[in-house]
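job 3f2a | input accepted
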Amino acid sequence: MVAGEILTKADHAPRQPPKYLPVYRRLRERLEGGDLKPGSLLPTEDELCSRYRVSRYTLREALGLLERQGYIQRRRRAGTRILGRPASGVFRAAISSRRDLFDFVKDTALEFGTPRLIETDGQLARLLGCDELRLWHLCEGVRVDLPYRRPISVTQVYVDARFSIPPDADFGGQPVFHWVEQHHDLKAAAVSQDITAILLAAMQAEIFGERVGDPALRIVRRYFDRDQRIFVITVTTHRSKDFIYNMRLQLDASGA
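job 3f2a | predicted structure (256 res):
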């Protein structure tokens, strides 16, 4: 995409499945079937590329997804080691203050793809809770917990197109809203959020290693500046079976 190009409504049509998915599925079947044993090394990239007749880039995309799901661990010059799947734990997000918004990401990593410029049409604007025909930088990625690199959310971050963002979508491991605050001289004055029960779509199910249509939770969070203008929106999708969202409100002594 060239600078300044805007996605039209046609660009929201379902995309063709990425080329790495068949390779990912074959490898995951072998890992879950015990053909590839925990503790051993995965065959080399050259061997796997030859076996599955794919490019090195396609293979690395498949391996990256397997790593995020906790099946393998890649180390430069040490090969790719097969791991035993970590037991599914419950990821708990407790939000009651600005500090909690930072702690939420403390033990996780969010890996983005290349940002793109979009315009909110009617359907997307209603989902995000923002004005129609507004321009945003869209960064899409997967948040994983550390050190297991188990995927805990599929995330889309929308940044007001008035603000420049890194071309590689590297925000230094901090919340995106805070990065925007630091680099564009503004302050988040308020946050609102919606939590909705949804069903996993195909790409989300692949990332989580779940079935299409399994229950999930979607959290839409909007960050407002002092003029009550939304400058960042995040949309995160979690598996409902291993995610708990807790919010504590401090009331005054009268309970009002």
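job 3f2a | The chain has two domains: 20-82, 91-247.
job 3f2a | closed
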